[in-house]
Predict the 3D structure of the following.
Amino acid sequence: MIVMKFGGTSVGSAARIMATTDIIAHSQKPAIVVVSAMSGITNRLEAVARGNDNKESIIDAHLKEAALLGIDVSEFADCARGILEGAHTESEIKACGEQLSSALIIRHMRAIGMDAVLLDALSFMRLNEDGYPDTPFLKKHLADALQQSGPHAVYLTQGFICRDAAGHVSTLSRGGSDYTATLLGEAAEATEIQIWTDVNGVYTADPRIVAHAQRIPHLNYGIADYAASFGAKILHRACVSPAWRNSIPIMVLDSFHPDAPGTVIGPKPIGNGFKIVASITDPEQPDMVKVSLIGHDYNINENDIRKIVGNDINIVDAGLATYMMVPRHKEKETIVALHDNFVTSEL
């Protein structure tokens, strides 16, 4: 069993859904496939919950793609309305994105003859009373769902959505489909977890900021975990741990270029040297940004970093992250300077 997760850009249109199902068709089986909402839909659903958008516009967006996929539009419209009209709380409304995308994709899969079944994530994804994933519940109820559905090549399900300890519909934090995938990988004892996105793996910095950032072919679990926690946009901040504690490799792959090598996250030795520069906004200081060097370089000290970022910057050593708070307007120049002076070229 493998787990494959496809994010919003990978399922954001009929063309992308066709490309994604082609990737799935040529992958190892059986596979649990986790899908996000279509790109932009979660933001629009949040607007619906605030009264700034309407449900019919969400339905229309999906019907347009259904028609391009050759799906029975009338039947799918009834399905879509049933999903949205049954949603009343903010969490229920936000959960509709994944429910709609999975309903669309399963119809396309069946239309092209793929041996696929849709599993309702709300039947096994649950939070405990402390608000964390209830992994014993997940393991038992996922096994039940798989057994009840019978043998299939593909088990399609939704990312991001779950129930809380009281049984109410809830969600993981934004980007939570990555987390869903690794939690399911742990529960199903998967041999591999694939995170399909729109970037060819994990880079030494955000390529939109550092044009010459390099793809990292192999990355240690610990480095990846710190990178996600300290703002690397490619992974959800909590998603590495379930795979790490079970030694399941995570592949970060590009659905737009499926033959590209991506990044393998696994037990590779950490080694010496900074690997990644990441940044994240501090909600308590909206005008400041936390910029971090991920990894550890025994040959570089705080004084070396101060020569680049300035003596007035407070630098904190947090294990596999060395971070500093900088004004937002200096974020990009700080990232470029740290990357060019301290990130190792030995990847």
